[in-house]
Amino acid sequence: MPEGMDEDLWSECLELYQDYQCLPIDGGEVLASQLEEGGAYTFTASTTLTLDVDRSLKTLCCAGGLEIRGEGRLTAEMIYVFREGCITVDSGTIVCPVMDNPPENGSLIQNGLFGIGGIVINGGSVECPSMSSGPQTVMVHGGTLKVSGISALFGYGQTGGTVEAGLISAREGFYIEGGQLTVEYVYGMSVSFSGGVSVVEHVENELNRVRIAFPMAITEPAGARWQDGRFVNADGNPVDRVRIEKLPVENPFTDVSAEIYYYTPVLWAVYAGVTRGVEETLFAPGKGCTRAEAVTFLWRANGCPTPAGSAPDFADVPETAYYATAVRWAVEQGITEGTSKTTFSPDEPCTRAQIIAFLWRCAGSPKVNTETCFADVPSSAYYAPAVNWAAYRLAYGTSDETFSPNRICSRSEIVTFLYRFFN
Question: Exposed/middle/buried for 228, CB within 10 Å: 0-12, 13-18, 19+?
Fold first, then answer.
């Protein structure tokens, strides 16, 4: 055993040596030119490998994190990082050719990149048969990646770069926030598209929850959508291939800056027909909402459904009022009961407690922890379950200890709550 190496690490290195002929050497700052052509190595510590020359190796392993950078080309049948180490590729070209005798399916180590502590692609180019992050995540922020299969138990995320893959299996979640992705098959507990361009042929999703967030849309085929566990076209017939991409949406409002938290919710509300500005170029984000406006926004966000006509008429809701249909629908759905048996009080301000209660009931009044999250929300209040349900999901408090349930809900707040609920 080399001097200074602990016994457990030496045992792991011996196993790798026996199976893959990896010679243990010191890690740290390593140049590719220091490695012999065709060699098989195990770095005994976290390592930064700089590709200062093109180098073809048999196998490359590392007992800690492995960061690869430089402008050269690295060829290796297997790059394996154990002991919870992460593989990070910042630049360079990495190619893992198919082994003459590849590992059997189900083997811990596969032909390609395997990082027990995760895999992060920031740049460069990677081409390999398989990529696995053990129990951790695979993240792509840049560069190009071409791989037959990606396995990431804790999830796959992409914010940039270009990825071509046959299969991506992300047990705990799959999300795309940017870049370009072309994939035949996606599996994930939940799946989310919120940026970039994705071409997908099939999605398998245990919770049947595929989120195509604003300003994303299925642009091909026209009218396609996710329905009952499948992508279907405008006629409801299944389709095998969809193109999902971020839409160019202009901001017409001078009082809504791109840096403000409600920027995307405001554009979504206008794009989805939930509300317009108070003027052509003004949204009036700080203006308070009335109960009529709040219910109307919620009704429009639900697709303007037609009520069955069984709701009671309120004396203060004229049949010709713009909000009359929305009020009838909301009462039928159990979202609101009005302020009395004969009044809805449409012109009264809508409070933060009221809009959160509306959304909670719209979600089916899910059961929540009865312990209140905020000091100003009594556990006996009608809105307490709704606030507990919404806390840190739809509506943050006005401070760490307060929710301000009786404060008038502004236009910016209400479209933000609706955006988070529907997206």
Answer: exposed
pLDDT in tens, the chain (423 residues): 555 556 665 566 555 555 556 777 888 999 999 999 999 888 888 999 999 999 999 889 888 899 999 999 999 988 988 877 899 999 999 999 987 766 665 555 668 999 989 999 999 999 999 999 878 999 999 999 999 999 998 999 999 999 999 999 998 889 999 999 999 999 988 899 999 999 999 998 877 778 888 889 999 999 898 888 889 998 889 999 999 999 888 999 999 999 999 999 999 999 889 999 999 999 999 999 999 999 999 999 998 999 887 667 899 999 899 999 999 999 999 999 889 989 999 999 999 999 999 999 999 999 887 677 889 999 889 999 999 998 877 888 889 889 999 999 999 999 999 999 987
Q: Where are the domains of the chain?
A: 7-245, 263-422
- Which tokens in the block code for residue 405? 């349930």
Best CA proximity match to 7, nearest among 44, 37, 39: 44
Distance of alpha carbon 388 from alpha carbon 258, whole angstroms: 30
Distance (Å, whole) CA 332 – CA 102: 62
pTM here is 0.76
Pairing mode, if any, of strands 144-151 and 125-132? parallel
CA-CA distance, 89 to 110, in Å (whole number)? 18
Pairing type for strands 225-227 and 230-232 reads antiparallel
Q: Give 89's strand partners.
A: 68, 121
